[in-house]
TrEMBL record:
InterPro entries: Retrotrans_gag_dom (IPR005162)
Name the UniProt record assigns to this protein: Retrotransposon gag domain-containing protein
Domain of life assignment: Eukaryota
Stretches assigned to the Retrotransposon gag domain: 37-129
Length: 138
């Protein structure tokens, strides 16, 4: 498995892939994550990293990912939460579930401690009213 490269586009997806990489290749200590990720930054991302690191101590992985998102992401965490909470099923359940899972993965970058129950409750509340109304339904 190759470590993902990052040039500045799609920071949330890059962080998700990095986290997956670190889970699979579990030999990395927490303090090795930022240096390892930084050597896979290119172009404007690499330039940003160089200026970001000037005069500071090595950040934690969490601090680094937050700073990366603040610099390169188009959305702020509050917008993601709002989008997630307003999500309603319009088409089929599969399409709705895919959108829920996509937003969930991005939210967990910012809010690592959100319980699964939160996501389940939001999923259920966004389902169309006619879902589950079979015999003996509402």
């Amino acid at each position: 498995m190759e470590f993902p490269k990052f040039e500045g586009d799609g920071p949330r997806n890059w962080i998700i892939k990095c986290n997956r990489y670190f889970q699979i290749v579990s030999t990395f200590l927490e303090e090795q994550k930022v240096p390892h990720a930084s050597v896979h930054m290119e172009g404007r991302a690499e330039l940003w990293y160089q200026s970001f690191m000037e005069g500071i101590e090595l950040p934690t992985w969490s601090q680094f990912t937050t700073a990366t998102l603040e610099r390169f992401d188009d959305h702020n965490p509050e917008v993601l939460v709002g989008e997630f909470n307003k999500l309603q099923q319009k088409g089929n359940v599969t399409t709705y579930l895919k959108k829920i899972e996509e937003l969930k993965s991005h939210m967990l970058i910012f809010y690592k401690d959100l319980p699964e129950e939160f996501f389940l409750a939001s999923f259920i509340s966004g389902l169309r009213d006619d879902i589950g109304e079979g015999e003996g339904g509402k």
